[in-house]
Amino acid sequence: MGASAWDTETKRPIHVDQGVEGLPIGLAGGRYLCRACTDPLILKGARPEAKVTPHFAHQGGGPCRLPDREAQIDADDAVVIQLSHQIRALPGVTGCTLASPGDDPHQPIGLPPVVVAQCGETTVVIERPGTLPSPQAVRRRILAVRDQHAGAAHVWFLRRDPTRFGQLSSHTVRLGGRDVEHQRVAPTEQQLAILEAGGHVYWLDGKLVLVPYGYHSFRHPARPEQDWTAWPKWPRRKDPRDDWRISKPRPAPSADCWGLVPIALSSLTRNRAAFHPADAHKIMDELYAAQEGRYRWRDRRAREVYAERHAPRPPQPDASIPAAEAPATETEPAHVPELPQLPQPADQQAADASPPADVIPAPAPSANPSQPYPPPPAVLPTIPPPPQQLPSVPRAPRQRRWTDALRMLRRRRER
Are 52 and 45 in contact, with CB atoms under 8 Å apart? Predict the structure, then answer.
């Protein structure tokens, strides 16, 4: 019992789950062929009164001669049909059908059917292969899509292969002021052929779409007056000259590998009625802005390190040459403050006064006469401040006790 067959008239596969109403039943003149072994098939159960569900069967009721191939085709078709349901539910999608451009059961292309979606005024042909066939088969499908759907965007949703994704380590990018890990993958010959033909290669992981950008490794050139060696606070095992740049919105053919931006599948038709990874392109613009800022900072830092390491040092004094002795300076006499003059006694004032004319002046005193008063002290005595009277505190009234009451009672009795 087969779930699909190749229709030789419409040149497309027929799936019983998609409906077989209006199709002729039976052999129909060899119209239906097995997609695995190319033998004629019989359509059964298509009548309304049929007691069995619609299906395709080989002549004689026997199984397919290539059961493994038939099972693989049915499994790939189930994935594509599930994707068609997801695409049909996206906002802006007005139509969704299945087709197989360029395929032929006698010369199979090795790819499952495509989902042809109508998004506004644009048409998108979406591939969902389990594995990519040879580069020649990929180019054959691309040419067939161009012939049958001219101007349509050709998008390939690849399966996330853990073996290929584990070959390259992820790298850290700076987005929104925080570090984010982006996976990297090495493109294959088939993927490069899709890119060269103008197609879009994405990875579909559940409800996430991984959109690639080009990752180009390079080394900063060492210019004059720059020092790129042993930067302070820089990881020892990393060279500041090692850097990378981005190619967007599609990876350039010369890219060393591809970095992947994760976005939601529903965002492909969110902003406008077209199949466009606008969220991924916005992130790529941020990566480019961070790249330019990183370039300028490293270039400036290399110049700063060079200037710090080549700055002239201040001259150091030679220990073998004794330091010049400082010239001796004349000592200035200590300044003695002028003391206030004490009032002289009355007799001393009279003696100092000029004598009257009729009085004969006394002879001049000797060199060291004895003075009646001692010389004033060098330091004036400290005069204590006048005593301050403390404010009088009124006496607290004495509290009466029981003895006072007893004494007053005795006095009254004595009276």
Answer: yes
322-362 pLDDT, tens digit each: 655 555 555 555 555 555 555 555 555 544 545 444 444 44
Give the global pTM: 0.70
Nearest Cα neighbor of 83 from 51, 34, 116 is: 116
Give dist(CA 142, CA 133) in Å, integer. 13
Mean pLDDT of 123-135: 93
Burial (Cβ within 10 Å: 0-12, 13-18, ≥19) of residue 191: buried
Tell me the residue length of the chain.
415
Spatial neighbors of 258 by CB under 8 A, at least 6 apart, are 184, 185, 186, 187, 212, 213, 214, 215, 251
Residues 273, 279, 284, 287: is their CA dihedral positive or negative? positive
| Helix axis angle, 135-148 to 189-196, nearest 10° | 20
CB atoms within 10 A of CB 194: 24
Nearest to 112 by CA among 84, 149, 150: 84
Lowest mean pLDDT among 30-39, 74-83, 388-397: 388-397
DSSP state of 40: B
Closest to 151 (Cα-Cα) out of 194, 198, 113? 198
Phi, psi of 94 (to 5 degrees): -105, -15
What are the boundaries of each domain within the chain? 1-65, 162-308
Nearest alpha-carbon partner for 2 in 60, 39, 30, 41: 41
CA distance to 75, 174, 269, per residue, from 127 (Å): 15, 32, 17
Retrieve residue 340's tokens: 């206030």
How would residue 392 be classed by pLDDT, with cut points 50, 70 and 90?
low
CA atoms of 59 and 27, how far apart (whole Å): 9
* Other CB atoms within 10 A of residue 261 CB: 23
